[in-house]
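Researcher: Sequence recovery benchmark, item below. Answer with residues only.
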């Protein structure tokens, strides 16, 4: 039986009158890389902190490794790795001293992996932590979160302060770990092209609600961009079909973002006596268009 990594059941989290999560349900079992996507303030960080027990639900239930997050102990917590947006370190220590200190909390700490990541990420272990740049602090967070081979790795904007080369290096390291370990990785990120490279499942959050929870490939098959051409110039000013999410253009040529299905483009083309070129869309485009739709 595949182990449950975590499960939220109708979780609502309030801070005073502010609702950060609303009736959120999400279940994750087995090995997977999940992309957590949403605008600023949509509830991504709150959701991740529910999983570790840093926040507890106002209502609903959250379990990690089958244990209520209110009762997580050393056995469960030692199986979790996390990178927070606001990680706080002992800044007077050198990198090597901090890693040595943290390693004593984990029986499974991998010194060979630690050295490999220090070398790969080009992080100077003799430098004082307080003197590190924001990008190098993110690299340090990644090393601390991964060297004990966690079963659940939660990453909150782990790429935001990294330069493009460092981002690719971190992504490659994550993929290497995913291939070698039995690990579930949840990544909250606005770097959607990078996220699309590695995620196999995507969860969209909007104003505290989970609006999409799909396998990435299945999600991309549900949407398409159509370039519609009508030589006589008889295209309407507005397309009223329910599957049309956004449209722009003129009477001769229009660009539509649609909820697609087999045969739909052919029927649409026949109805308007037009030519329809279907183009695939990436995760960034899907997120932008769904966000625009949800505003209406």
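Model:
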């Amino acid at each position: 039986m595949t182990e449950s990594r975590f499960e939220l059941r109708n979780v609502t989290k309030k801070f005073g009158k502010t609702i950060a999560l609303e009736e959120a349900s999400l279940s994750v079992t087995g090995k997977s890389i999940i992309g957590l996507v949403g605008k600023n303030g949509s509830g991504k960080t709150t959701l991740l902190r529910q999983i570790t027990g840093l926040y507890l639900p106002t209502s609903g239930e959250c379990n990690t490794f089958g244990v209520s997050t209110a009762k997580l102990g050393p056995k469960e917590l030692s199986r979790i790795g996390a990178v927070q947006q606001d990680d706080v370190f002992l800044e007077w220590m050198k990198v090597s001293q901090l890693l040595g200190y943290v390693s004593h909390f984990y029986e499974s700490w991998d010194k060979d992996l630690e050295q490999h990541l220090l070398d790969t990420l080009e992080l100077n272990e003799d430098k004082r932590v307080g003197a590190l740049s924001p990008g190098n602090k993110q690299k340090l967070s990644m090393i601390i979160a991964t060297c004990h081979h966690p079963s659940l790795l939660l990453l909150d904007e782990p790429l935001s302060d990294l330069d493009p080369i460092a981002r690719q290096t971190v992504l490659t390291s994550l993929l290497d770990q995913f291939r070698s370990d039995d690990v579930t990785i949840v990544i909250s990120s606005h770097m959607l092209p990078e996220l699309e490279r590695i995620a196999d499942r995507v969860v969209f959050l909007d104003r505290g609600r989970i609006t999409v929870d799909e396998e990435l490939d299945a999600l991309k098959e549900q949407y398409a961009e159509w370039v519609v051409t009508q030589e006589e110039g008889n295209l309407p000013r507005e397309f009223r079909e329910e599957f049309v999410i956004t449209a722009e253009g003129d009477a001769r040529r229009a660009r539509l973002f649609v909820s697609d299905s087999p045969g739909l483009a052919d029927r649409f083309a026949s109805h308007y006596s037009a030519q329809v070129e279907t183009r695939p869309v990436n995760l960034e485009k899907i997120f932008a268009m769904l966000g625009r739709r949800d505003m209406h």
